[in-house]
UniProtKB/TrEMBL annotation:
GO biological process annotation, one example: double-strand break repair via homologous recombination
Limits of the Replication protein A OB domain: 2-72
Record's keyword terms, sorted: DNA replication, DNA-binding, Metal-binding, Nucleus, Zinc, Zinc-finger
Main localization (coarse): nucleus
GO cellular component: DNA replication factor A complex
MF annotations from Gene Ontology: damaged DNA binding; single-stranded telomeric DNA binding; zinc ion binding
Coiled coil: none
Annotated protein name in UniProt: Replication factor A 1, rfa1, putative
Record keyword DNA-binding present: yes
Record SUPFAM superfamilies: Nucleic acid-binding proteins
Gene3D superfamilies named among the record's database cross-references: Nucleic acid-binding proteins (2.40.50.140)
């Protein structure tokens, strides 16, 4: 008889995913139950106890006879994972640890320190400079972190212009010249970032704001409006965390004044393992050039 095998992918708030392979009886018991849940649109939490970690070109987990698979267990970790998932984690991009990943150096990344943004006069050319910094978020400007955006979809693009509340209580878009009963909320998040060389300000818009906070602008706005403790929890969880930030650096003028503006194009939490590989690769290229 052919050995039964079923492979699933798990992800969590680390921004990583891992493959879990179920063997034998696990396929028909927990495996079928999981498949049923996934097919009807539920995303069950799965705890794997006593799984075997395989270390062949990346890490994966397999069941052995003494393994236990717990579906939607009543554990604190499972509840916080569920909260994260429902609050934007579902759409968060993940990197698989079950496949060998490309080291950052070969992705044509230009690493800079915060001080180098200024010292190397980045953003002063005709075109913006694109660089990656490894930095810690030390401050979120929270008095206004998002704006009310026009939900109107024109073609395949959302208008996204700022809308204002009209006398009728609807949201008015000057560009579309239309009123809407509901508006969208989009991030316009100002944050201060720091590394060993200095500090600077950066702006994150919708996608990168969500990548940093792991929560949609609408949810965060609602939490704040309703004095929901999740508002503070989400911000505290991201403060003093290290991120790899892909920045678009460009000098911009506002009236008579000008300054270099850093826009976050992509944000991901620093993964110690991937970062170590990057540094080892970087050091070996440095020594090779002598
Ligand atoms: Zn509009």
């Amino acid at each position: 008889m052919e050995t039964q095998k079923r492979t699933i992918t798990l992800k969590d708030m680390s921004g990583r995913s891992v493959e879990v392979t179920m063997w034998g009886d696990f396929c028909n018991r927990e495996g079928s139950q999981l498949q049923g849940l996934v097919e009807c649109g539920a995303f069950p939490v799965l705890a794997v106890k006593a799984g075997k970690v395989n270390d062949y070109s990346g890490k994966s987990v397999g069941t052995i006879s003494s393994s236990q698979l717990l579906i939607n267990p009543d554990l604190a970790e499972a509840h916080s994972l569920r909260q994260w998932f429902d609050c934007g984690g579902r759409d968060a991009s993940t990197q698989s640890i079950s496949r060998d990943f490309t080291p950052a150096a070969s992705r044509n990344e230009i690493r800079k320190t915060v001080a180098q943004i200024k010292d190397d006069s980045l953003g002063m050319g005709d075109k913006p400079d694109w660089v990656t910094v490894k930095a810690t978020v030390i401050f979120f400007k929270t008095d206004s972190f998002c704006y009310t955006a026009c939900p109107n979809v024109i073609g395949d693009r959302q208008c996204n212009k700022k809308v204002t509340k009209s006398d009728s209580g609807n949201w008015l878009c000057d560009k579309c010249n239309q009123e809407f009963p509901e508006c969208d909320y989009r991030y316009l998040l100002q944050l201060q970032i720091q590394d060993h060389s200095g500090t600077t300000w950066a702006t994150a818009f919708q996608e990168s704001g969500q990548e940093i906070l792991g929560c949609s602008a609408r949810d965060l706005y609602m939490f704040k409006e309703n004095d929901d403790p999740r508002y503070t929890d989400i911000l505290i969880q991201c403060l003093y965390q290290q991120y790899l930030l892909r920045l678009k650096v460009k000098y911009e003028t506002y009236g008579d004044e000008g300054r270099v503006k850093n826009t976050v194009a992509k944000a991901e939490r620093v993964d110690p393992s991937a970062e170590s590989k990057f540094l080892i690769d970087y050091i070996s290229r440095l020594t090779a050039s002598y």
